[in-house]
Design brief:
Belongs to the UPF0178 family. InterPro entries: UPF0178. It comes from Endozoicomonas elysicola. It holds the Pfam family DUF188. The protein is of the alpha/beta class. Helices cover about 45% and strands about 15% of the residues. It has a 6-stranded mixed beta sheet with strand order 3-2-1-4-5-6, sandwiched between helices. It has one domain: Rossmann fold. Strand 4 (about 70), helix 3 (about 75-85) and strand 5 (about 90) form a beta-alpha-beta unit. Helix 1 (about 10-25) packs parallel to helix 5 (about 130-150) and helix 3 (about 75-85) runs antiparallel to helix 4 (about 100-115). The protein has 5 helices and 6 strands; from the N terminus they run E-H-E-E-H-E-H-E-E-H-H. The longest helix is centred in the C-terminal third of the chain and has 20 residues, at about 130-150. The protein starts with a strand and ends with a helix. The protein has helices at about 10-25, 55-65, 75-85, 100-115, 130-150; strands at about 5, 30-35, 45-50, 70, 90, 95.
Amino acid sequence: MEIWVDADACPLVIKEILYRAAERTKTPTTFVANHFLQVAKSKYIKFMQVSSGFDVADSEIVKRITSDDLVITADIPLAAEVIEKGALALNPRGELYTESNIRARLNMRDFMDTLRSSGIQTGGVSAISQSDRQDFANNLDKLLAKKSKA
């Protein structure tokens, strides 16, 4: 199993959890972004910079993942592609995207996008809470433990 991180919008606190998990479990982890990113020094952690452009990092992740991999992303269309390829997708709030919930997430995303494009203020995403951090860390640990037994 490898972990791939859609790192452009990944919160720092989540990156730090991933650094510790990669080191502790010796799991290769690659942070993909279209801007330079300083990552923790570890033989298990890499940074891949891609060119700027719409969904360039997402495309690179989808191209490289295998069905044994885990992708960390809040990007719902990317999560849908990851699931389609048979890999796992976990968002920074600890929610595992699945075949059964991704369609509803895509529909809600499209609905909110339609509202915003018609001028309706929908508000932004709330900050990552302590509970979100804990949920992420717990679900990450469960996924890593499950994969190490396989």
